[in-house]
Amino acid sequence: MNAPYITPLKVGIGGLGAIGLELARRLGTGIDGLKLTAVSARDKDAARLRMNDLGQQVPVIALSELASVSDVVVECAPASVFNQVAEPVIRMGKTLIPVSVGGLLENWYLVELARTTGARINVPSGAVLGLDAVRAAGLGNIKQVTIVTRKPPAGLVGAPHIEKQKIDLDSVDQPLKVFEGSAKEGVKAFPANVNVAAALGLAGIGPDRTWLEVWADPLVNRNIHSITVESDSARCELKIENVPTDENPRTGRIVVLSALAALKRLVDPLTVGT
User: How are strands ordered across the β-sheet holding 210-216?
Assistant: First the structure.
């Protein structure tokens, strides 16, 4: 008979933007098996004020220090500081839950390092669905995976590809395809927008073979992802319409819940899904 899980997992959060702050709030309400131990952000003073507003007395420490006080660290920081959160976690053999999956693609050596340190990297589904089916199909033969992402133009503001191509999003009055290419290329072009494509690529036939289209669509008010998978075991057509957060139109509200579900999966006695 297995002993009950008594000691809660210590959780650190790297980044206190729209995702990190809401995750901290939910953990602060009390969730069996999980305890928020520390948070981190580039602006520590602002982070302390935010945590005080939540009524939580949780230490605010450097990104690189989270691993030393946590069993599991949820990374939800800007892509530019991904490594500051992730590498210490992997080197110390802890568990990393990366929300910025594109950052993992850019630092693939961390996966190889985890093999030697015993660390675990658990990629949450985030704003996409059906990764369990895609992962299962990947044990057979997947022929093709495509994902079409449609976002309100405001949700693509600031993306490197948009700026490089000098696309005037304010003038878009009809659906406009702004990108087509591999998921790996898409992550570089839209580092804050298409983590879904990176996660889909990792679950299936790889980011290089996963095909991505990105549309700026003024006719939608949600972030929409449509996925088609052709394999020898099943044909999957998946579609999700995510409600953007009030703080950041690039991020769906479900992303926070997905990260929380990934945390609960580590401690719950029953888990559902492959």
Answer: 176-182, 210-216, 142-151, 223-231, 235-242
Q: Which pLDDT score, from 0 to 100, does residue 274 have?
A: 73
CA–CA distance, 212 with 194 (Å, rounded to integer) = 9
Query: Tell me, what's the pLDDT at 246?
Result: 79
CA distances for 82 relative to 23, 72, 101, 110, angstroms: 18, 15, 10, 11
Q: 192, 18 in Cβ contact below 8 A?
A: no
Q: 46: which residues sit within 8 A by CB, 6+ positions away? A: 16
- The domain of 216 spans 131-242
Q: What is the spatial distance between Cα 49 and Cα 181, in angstroms, rounded to a whole number?
A: 42
CB 37 within 8 A of CB 267: no
Look up 161 and say whether it is catalytic. Answer: no
| CATH number (domain holding residue 182) | 3.30.360.10
**pTM for the complete prediction?**
0.91
Contact 39, 51 (CB under 8 A): yes
Q: Which residues of the chain have pLDDT under 70?
A: 1-6
- The structure tokens listed for 223 are 């972030």
Residue 141 three-state SS = coil
Q: Which pLDDT score, from 0 to 100, does residue 273 have?
A: 81
Asked if residue 2 is part of any domain, the answer here is no
* Dihedral, CA of residue 14, residue 18, residue 21 and residue 25, to nearest 10: -140
- Strand, coil or helix: 233: coil
**In the prediction, which pLDDT does 248 show?**
77
Among residues 94, 151, 184, 225, the one annotated as catalytic is 225
Question: Which pLDDT belongs to residue 247?
Answer: 76
